[in-house]
Records
---
Amino acid sequence: MSLTGVLRPGYVQLRVLDLAAAVTHYVDRIGLDEVSREKDGRVYLKGWDEFDRHSVILREADTPGMDVVGFKVASDGELDAFKNRIEAKGIAVREVPAGEQPGMGRRVSFVVPTGHRIELFAQVEQSKTAPPIMNPDVWPSEPRGMRATRFDHVLLYGPDIDGVTAFFTEVLGFGVAEKVEMPDGTLAVWLSCSNKAHDIAFVKHAEPGKFHHAAFFLESWHDVGHAADIIARYNVSLDIGPTRHGITRGQTIYFFDPSGNRNEVFAGGYTHYPDHPTRIWTADELGKGIFYYQKELNDRFLGVVT
Ligand code: M3P
Ligand code: FE
C-alpha cells in the first residue's frame, strides 16, 4: 500500500521562555535552520533534509510546553474527509485559515482525548533552501551541531490512552506499532502512519495536555555520540543517554532545551508496515523496553513534563 491519508508529522509549535536562548539551542546545538521570524514573534525552523517550509515553531510564552502538533495529509480531499470523520465522532473541529502560519494552507484543528491539540493540513510551501533535487549532493552544506536531519515525532502525556488510541487508529488510520500493557490497562502506545516505528506516542498521565519530548532524526549511532559530545561541550542539560530503546529499537539521547522542554535525537528504529502485528511490553520488562541497556527507568524521565 502506498502512503495515503496522514503522511507524517509536519510541525510542532513549542512554547519557550526566552526566544534568543531557544534559537541558539535549536539552531546551533540541534542543527535546525532558521526559516523566518514573523511580526507576531514566532520563529520558524526546519531540518536541513526537509522539503516543507518549516517543521518547528518557537513561541515565547510564560510557561514551556507544546501548543500543537500538525500532521500533513496527502490531499485537500483527504483533509475534508478527515474533518467529516472527526466531527462524526463528536469532536469539535476548528478551521484555521491559510496563512496563519506563513506558507501554510488551511488547517483542521481539534483536541484528542489526552487533551492535546492536533492539526491536519494538506498544503504547505516548499522550502526555498530545500534539499537539492537535481544531481543532489548528500547535503546542501555541512550540517551543523547535532546534524539533525528532520523533525520526527512527539511523545505526549495525558489520560485516556485507550481513547486516544481508538481516535488515531479508527479516525486517522494509524497503526499501533508497540504498546505497554500494565495489570490495570495500557500505559503507553506507539502509533505509526508510515514506515516509521512511530510518528507519535502517548503515555498515561493524570494531567491532560502534557509534553514529554520532540524528537529529531540523526543518520547514525555515531551521530548520537556526536550529539552527546555537543551536550557536554555546551553544558546542555542532559536527561539520559546515549542509550537504546527496546521499544522501536532507536539509538537515542535525551536532553532539555533552555526552557525545560525535553528533546530527543535518535537514529535507527525498525521499518514498520501496516500489516505488522503490535509488539507488546509487560510491566516486568518495561525497564528494558524504554532503556534497553540500563533496564531501569529514572524518575526524571518519567516525571518531568512541560
Ligand atoms: C521514545 C521513543 C517513554 C518512552 C519513550 C520512547 C517516555 O521516546 O522514541 O521510542 O516511556
Ligand atoms: Fe521518542
---
Amino acid sequence: MAESLLEVNHLKKYFRDKKGFLNKNPKPVKAVDDISFFIKEGETLGLVGESGCGKSTTGRMLMRLIEPTEGHIQFQGKNISEMSQAEMRTVRKDIQMIFQDPYASLNPRHRVERIIEEPMIVHNIGDKETRKKKVRDLLEVVGLNSFHARRYPHQFSGGQRQRIGIARALAVEPKLIIADEPVSALDVSIQSQVLNLLEDLQKEYHLTFLFIAHDLSVVRHISDRVGVMYLGKIVELADRDELYENPKHPYTQALLSSVPIPDPTYEQEEIELKGDVPSPIDPPTGCPFHTRCPQAMDVCKKVVPEFKEERNGHSVACHLYDDQHMAI
Ligand code: SF4
C-alpha cells in the first residue's frame, strides 16, 4: 500500500463572526470542526458537500493560505502546521492549487507565458531560456499550442483558461494538487475534457489530488476515495465504489438520491431534505445533521456521533451505527 503523502488530524478553523463586532463575546463561525483524513501517494481523494460546508477552507488550510485554529497537517512526514511562513515557501512548491474560477485566477494583464513562468521564478527554478521552453512544453501537455504563450487570458475560452491554470500548477512539478471546484464554472461538455486531462496528468506525473466539488457525479469520475462534509465535519468517508453503492450516512444517501442515473428504466426515489443548512455560528447540538435528517432519533439531538471506521476503511459519523442499534 502506498504511503500517506498527507495526513490531517483534528483540523479546525473557527473564524470570528464579523457581524458580531458590537458583541464583546461573539460566537466563532465553525467553518471546519475537527476533521481527520489522509491521502496516499498517487491517489485522488474527493471532498464533497454543499456550499459553505468547509471543503474549500480545508483546501486552503492545507497550503496554510488560511491558518488553522487547531490540529496537525503532516505532509511528506513533516508537520507543516507549525512551520514558519519562510519554511512554508519551500513546501508550497510541492503543493499547488487549481482554482474554481479560471476567469478570476489568471492575471488579465499578463501574457500566458508570464502566468505559467511566475511560479518557477518564485521558486527559483531554471534560467530564462529553460523556463521559456518549459512553458511551451507545458502548453502542449495540457492540450494547448506553444504559440498560445504570447496571448492574454481573455483570448481563451473557459476550458482553455482552466488548462492554463493546470499548466501553471504543473510548472513547479508539485506532488500534491488541491483542485478546488476546478470544473464547476465550465460547461458540462467541457467538464469531462478537463477531468480526463487531470486523470491523464495524474498517471503521467504520478500526482496526488485533493479534489473538492459539490457535485457527487463529478467526484465519482475522478476519485479513489470520497469524503462527504456537512457543516464543517466529515460525516462519511469510503472507497469510491463502496460509498456510491453502499452509502451509510443519511446525508450521503440524500445527496446520492438526487444524482441523475443515465438509465431510463431505473426509478430512483429522491430523498428530500427538510430546511436549509444550519448556520455554522450556531450549529445544532448533538449530530449537526439532526435538524434535517429523515432518520433522526432522540439521541441525535444530544450526543455528537463519533466518526468511526465501520469496515474496510468505510467510516461514518451516525448513531444508526452505534453498537446498540446494530444497523450494520
Ligand atoms: Fe441522522 Fe441521527 Fe445519524 Fe445524525 S446521527 S445522521 S441525525 S440518524
